Each structure stands twice: as structure tokens, then as C-alpha cells.
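Example 3.2
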Amino acid sequence: MNNEKEMNMSVLLITYDQSEMNSSVDPVLSLVQEYKHVQLSENSYAIETDEKTRTIFNKIMPYLSSSAHLFIVTLVKPFAGPVLEHVSNWLSKHLPED
């Protein structure tokens, strides 16, 4: 049954503009840390979850100003880009095949 749950897991890219946030502590990062995750760049993370993109979007939006930008998309292999080795390893391990 555990394998069945793992089969339903997906990796979501979360990227956002926090320039309007008032807090010195990033509440989005606090939420992201509740999941298996890797930081791709400043304000961009990949998380592994069985939740839908809309669910994650709805969890994050209350922490952002009305003028903030938030983008969430499901990731699959293959991927390309100049990423750090630990990021490449994490994505290789967690991303499903297209």
C-alpha cells in the first residue's frame, strides 16, 4: 500500500515573488519545509506531494500580498538546466517520467 501512495506523488514547482511580504521570516519557506523539497533558486522550490496544485496554491496565497506573483506547476522528467549537483540528484530521484 505504501508503494501505491508513492505512485500518486508528484513534484510541484513553486515559484513566487515575495517583494511585497512584510515579514522578515518567509512563511512560504516554512510551509515548503513541511514537504520533501529542494530549493532550485531564490523563491523557487520543488516539493514532493500527493496534493493538487490548487491545494498548494490555496495554502500559500494567504501569506502573499495581493500584488504578489505565485506560479505552481507539476514537473516531470526530463529536465535541463545549470543546477547544483544536489538539486540534480534530488530531481532525478523524485521526478516521475513523462
